[in-house]
Structure formats: C-alpha cells, structure tokens
Amino acid sequence: MAFKGVLRPGLIQIRVLNMDEAINHYQNILGLNIVSTEADGRVYLKGWDEFDHHSVVLRQAESAGLDYVAFKVDSDDYLREIEPKIVAWGLEVDHVPAGEQPGVGRRIGFTLPTGHRIELYHQIDMAEDHPGINNPDIYQRRPDGMGASRFDHLLCYGPNIGKAREFFCDVLDFYQPEKVDLPEGDGSLAIWLTASNKAHDIAFVEHEEPGKLHHVAFLLQDWNEVGAAADIISINDVSLDIGPTRHGITRGQTIYFFDPSGNRNEVYAGGYTAYPDHPVRSWDFDHVGKGIFYYERSLNDRFLTVLT
Amino acid sequence: MRYRVTIENCSETYPCSEQQTLLQGMEQLGKRGIPVGCRGGGCGVCRVQVTSGTFSKAKMSRSVISEADESKRIVLACRCTPTSDLSISVVGKMQKALSAQRLIETEDDVSVAAVG
Predict the structure, then answer these.
(1) Does residue B77 sit in helix, strand or coil?
(2) A211 CA to chain B: closest CA distance, Å?
(3) Is A129 inside a domain boundary?
(4) What is the pLDDT of residues B81-99, one digit of tens each?
(5) Are residues A161 and A42 in the same domain?
(6) What CATH number is attached to the domain comprising A203?
C-alpha cells in the first residue's frame, strides 16, 4: 500500500448554540444522516458515502466553534510509533480512551501552536448504513438536502501557521500543495496541507486569535450539485456567505454559508488531484482575491473577519 | 408591529418588525451601518450597544458577548429583535471589519496586521 500513515480528517466535533436548530441544519440542509444521540447530548452524523460510524459530532455549548478535528491513521502501530515523535517535536500528548465517542477506539490528542486541538485515531466501527460493498449501487437511497457525501476538509485561523506546516509535514508526512505568501518576509498568509490526493485535508490562515474555525467543508459530486445547494440555501433562508463561485486555489467549485450558530460551512466539488512531487503552487499577496474567489477576484471582509 | 431603528454612528434609520432581527431588518432594505457576519450569534461581527428602547434577544456565543456586555445592553444585532423604537451604536469589531476592507481595496497600502 502506497498510502500510509494519516489517511484523512475523519472526525470533527463542532460546538453549536442550539442543538435542535443544528440538527435541522446538518440533517435536512446538508443532508447528513444522524447515527446516534448519546446521553451527554452529543449528536453523531455521517455523509452517505462514508463507511465509518460517523464523521461529524455536534456538541451544544455556550460558544460556537471547533472542539477538535481527528485524523484517521492506518494502524494502531502507527499511533504507537507517532506519539513519541509528536512529543519529541515539542507537543504534549494526551490520551482519550476508547468509547469516549460511540464506535471509536482510543485517540491521542495535542494542541498545535495555532491553538487548534488535533487528534489521531485508528479504530472506528463500520457504519450500519454504509455504502454498498458487493455489487454496490451508487447509493442506497437518494440523500436528503444538499446530499453532502462526506466531511472533506477544514480551514483554521490562528497564529504560527509556519509552525503548523512544519509539524504536519515533518512529523505527520503531510505535504503542501498550495500557499499564499505574505508581502514581506518569508512567511505565508495561508497554507493548504494534505496527507492524500485531495488538494487539502486541512488549511490555515495566519491570524492573531488562536484556535479559530473558518469553515468545515463537505464534498459534493459536481457543479450541478453546488447549484442545487444554492437553491436549498435560498429556499430555507440559510445565512449565505458567498457563492456559488470557484476557488483559484485548489480550483474547487464552492458555496459558503453558515450553520444556525454561525459556524461557516462549505460544500465543495472538483479541485485538482494533488501529488507530493508536484511543485507548491504559490500566490502572491496582491493576487489573493483571485486565489480565494476566482470569479469575483476580490476578498470580502467576511472572509478575513467572520470566524467562530 | 414595526419599530424604527436608528444607527447612531451613521444616522441611518430603518423600520424593523418584531419578527425580524435588527440585522435582517437592515439587510432586507439594503441599508448599511451594522457589519454583517454569520447572522447566527457566533462570530460577533454585528456587535451593537442599544442606547435606548426595549428588545428581546436570543442565545449568543459567550466567546463574543460576555455577561458584562449583556448588562451594558451590548448584543449581536443578528440575535436581537425590537419591542419598541430603538437607538443603537455599532461597537467592537466594526473597526476591524473596516480596516480589513481598506486592506482589500487599497493594494498599495497592505499591512499584515490588518489581516488579523
């Protein structure tokens, strides 16, 4: 197997202000399926094309935002071997026992210099309602709402993103398909990192406040589905950010909107296939508008300031 | 019932019903003055102080509106509904949103600090 170590961002726990409103949004608007609701109030959901037990965890809290994102790794051996490397790099590692989330084995966690909590895990049960395996149909039943097929990636805002790049690339064997350079110095304003063929599994924008969430993205199949998502946003009076449009960076076709607690969501289709031997695509600061919003060719103030 | 909302910073006024938030009322009429963010009580961009009048409010993210803020009638316009004519003053992240806007519009005046 050529694809080793970290496989993908597999779990994300999001804080919401009102669980009923959040469930309506993630289930009926995005089209995720509820897997379970647990005694502590957390609600577990998954996209129709995901094999694992769940991918999205909603937790009601007093503040919106990101609790953590967890990356699935290829083996428990990898978890054992990576832990001392993370510690040697300088991060404190803690342990979350198996069963803290339903169907999920032990996890290890740490906080990046950007202020974001990252976890790694290997074991997770297969979902009961999983995609077909033997003579598989396209899907078992037509998905609801936008029909988001999976949790795809996230964009984090925080300080020290250069250190985050160093950690992901040097310790977890990620690589950097794309970046936006700052006008002076050798730093980056924004970086796109992946452990896979996707143009990004996680991205960061340099920002003074630590631990902020810019958006959580879900995959759609094509541009037509992005258009249908825009219809659903208007039909249901969902808070729109921007789109449908396209990113110059990653080339993804996209629409940004907000969940009822103000956490930004994206549904996304397309994007190029990344390989670790490709050059790092690089955007100058004075072209960042076109890089982020390819058709509008300018940033809006919400992109830089509206975070949870 | 419709009430009149006055934004003191820019002397803008607009009607807003009891079924609308202060932000919805402003946005739907194409008015400007309060920065528009997530519209869900999460990001804190539409922070305003109600200087006169009565209102009801829904849950707002504690990381952007503290209890002390609420006691000073500082709320998020996206979670606040008028129950009388209101005067409001835009506070907080307005300055930040405006400086970010200037950063985007003025290519020859870029500064890293404004990005944060």
Answers:
(1) helix
(2) 12
(3) no
(4) 999 999 999 997 654 444 4
(5) no
(6) 3.10.180.10
What's the ipTM?
0.91
Q: Could you tell me the CA-to-CA distances from B115 to A117, A202, A208, A216, A221 in Å, in that order? A: 23, 20, 9, 21, 33
Please tell me whether residues A89 and A157 are part of one structural domain: no
Annotation says A130 is catalytic: no
Report yes or no: B8 and B88 within 8 Å, Cβ to Cβ: yes
A144: in domain: no
Domain extent for A43: 6-121
Q: Do B38 and A18 touch (CB under 8 A)?
A: no
A·B CB contacts under 8 A: 99
When CB atoms are compared, the residue of B37, B42, B110 closest to A302 is B37
CB atoms inside a 10 Å sphere around CB A166: 13
**Which one is catalytic: A200, A206, A214, A268?**
A200
Cβ-Cβ contacts under 8 Å for B95 (sequence gap 6 or more): none
Residues A158, A88: one domain? Answer: no
Tens-place pLDDT, residues B32-83: 999 999 999 999 999 999 999 999 999 999 999 999 999 999 999 999 999 9
- Residues A26 and A37 sit within 8 Å (Cβ to Cβ): no
**Which residues of chain A does B45 touch, with a Cβ-Cβ cutoff of 8 Å?**
302, 305-306
Q: Are A162 and A282 in a shared domain?
A: yes
